[in-house]
Amino acid sequence: MQLEHWGIEYFDLFLIHFPVSLQYVDPSHRYPAEWYGDDGKVHMERVPMHETWKAMEELVDDGLAKNIGLSNCQGSLILDVLQYAKYEPQVLQIELHPYLTQEPLTNLCKLWGIAVTAYSSFGPQSYLELGMGKTTPSLLQHSTIGAIASAHGKTPAQVLLRWATQRGIAVIPKSNDHGRLVSNLQCGGFDLTEEELAAISGLNMNYRLNDPVNIEPRLSIFA
């Protein structure tokens, strides 16, 4: 691993992005590798998770990563990793927003001391540029979120972020707009009531946007 490309000596956190094994693509040939091969097809490899996790642990032993973790994994796979891990996963990064609250999974992580990081905190808004989520009601314009935002003098985005952070979940929102970046950083400094937290969580409909089954039917990891 050539960390000089990033100008660093080690990673604070290194994650397995998806629990699937795809054919290796040399960075000199194509970077990032993406899902598809040169023929436009997905090529899978027969590599079990325990081998990948062992390789991740070697990064820790070599001082290349301080912490290692998982992303887009279900509870059964997390429990499997915990059976043989020399270094337990420190973080689970998952799609999480009021339309996909994933409470059983976050509760499991809390029991095992695994920190949870939420991506796509704004739900469909995060996928519009990819042509996805256009027919799903916007969380930023949802009446429940709007009413709570007005009650606190905050933006809907700040309420969505606070809904996560107040429950101990880290968030990683992104934006190309400087004003929104600043606003996102100001999502603390206020607390939602238990009733407001429950109302937001009540919007859950197990609606997942980031699912590799949309790329390749054999990659139905959330089945």
Give a structural overview.
It holds the Pfam family Aldo_ket_red. One of its GO terms (molecular function) is oxidoreductase activity. This is NADP-dependent oxidoreductase domain-containing protein. By secondary structure, the protein is of the alpha/beta class. Helices cover 30% and strands 11% of the residues. The protein is built from 7 helices and 5 strands, in the order βαβαβαβααβαα. α3 links the parallel β3 and β4 (115-119). The radius of gyration is 19 Å and the shape is globular. 25% of the residues are buried.
Short description:
This protein has about 220 residues and is an alpha/beta fold. Helices cover about 30% and strands about 10% of the residues.
What amount of the residues lies in strands?
A: 5-15%
Order of helices and strands: EHEHEHEHHEHH
> How large is the count of helical segments?
7
Unreliable residue stretches: none
